[in-house]
Amino acid sequence: MTHTCTPPGMGRRSFLRVAGQGAAVAAVGSAVPWLSACGSSDAAGGKAGKGRFAVKLAWIPNAEYAGIFIGAEDGLYTKQGLNVDVLPGGPNSAVVPMVTTNRVDLGVEAIPENVATAVARGAKLKIVGAGLLKSPESWISLADRPVKSPKEIEGKKLGITLAGKNTALVFMKRNGVDVSKVKLVPIQFDPAPLAAREVDAIWGFASNQPVSLELRGVRTHVMPLADFGFNRMQSVFFASQKTLDDPAARERARKFMAASRQGWEAALRDQKHAADVIIKRYGAKLGLKLDEQAKSLAAIAPYVSGDGGAASKGLFWMSDALIQETITSLTSIGIKLDKSLFTNELLGG
Which residues are the signal sequence here (predicted)? Predict the structure, then answer.
């Protein structure tokens, strides 16, 4: 049996489309007390009965978590003897604190630096799997005037979010781009400036802005940073050291990871079914659209499997090479971490 505590509010794409206009903040903010009530469930940490397991997401239910939802819908968690509570997130979702304080058994954080920063400050956490084996961070340009390589960035006007600016500058310098020949234009997450040809490319995610633009009839070209030496795992699963040290809690976490892996394998095999589940079971209250979720899932699939072919040891597995790429990329933007942050022990490693 699986419970999903779903907040009223809006889909991520809707949020991105109105970001910076005030309405998004008000609409999502109204959901916070509701989420807090959900998060206070005694299910966390397995306290409410044998097999009870709570997982906290970084964002609201959508295609980014398709494998987890298929795990629930298809009874994969039940087969493992788990009774799972899925706690959604949202803007400024406090995933790390909930895992650190053992209010939930496991968290899914969008980016590894959030976990690494907490560990640097003394938190006892481990990243136990990578939902995305390849980073979807990309430069997105229009199909009729594509930016295909880092050097082509020179002489261009680039739309960049405040959150992405530091990483973008590091990426350009590492790829020999003369930053003095680039004009950076502050933008929000909305890709409208690109559609309006106000900029030549925007910083974004392969499964996000290109999908939004395609649904508006705008064709794009995507240049993933990972294809040019700047890769890091994303959508990371992480747990507290306390969970890993407790045999019963660790076993529940292992079973959850096994079922989630099976869920993602099934979602990749039958993306139509996965998109249908997201909409019918989780998306109605959030205003998500079937075509949008289907396209988002198709776009994110290569990043889940590591560009079309999962690592030899399966989805979520953090190879030595991926760990080192993540360390190198995060170190270059000022995040301190080492290999001890990562463990494959819940994946059979």
Answer: none
Q: How far apart are CA 117 and CA 219, in angstroms?
A: 37
User: CB neighbours of 77 closer than 8 A, spacing ≥ 6?
Assistant: 2, 53, 71, 83, 84, 255, 256, 259
Q: How many Cα neighbours within 13 Å face the side chain of 303? A: 29
Residue 11 has pLDDT above 60, yes or no: no
User: Which tokens go with 243?
Assistant: 């969970």
Look at residue 311 in the predicted model and tell me its pLDDT.
54
- CA distances 170 to 37, 175, 222, 225, 258, Å, are 41, 9, 19, 11, 36
Q: What is the pLDDT of residues 192-232, one digit of tens each?
A: 999 999 999 999 999 999 999 999 999 999 999 999 999 99
| Domain, as residue range, for 305 | 2-134+232-347
CB 66 within 8 A of CB 297: yes
Q: Which token pair is 234?
A: 């994303």
Asked whether residue 9 falls in the same domain as residue 121, the answer is yes
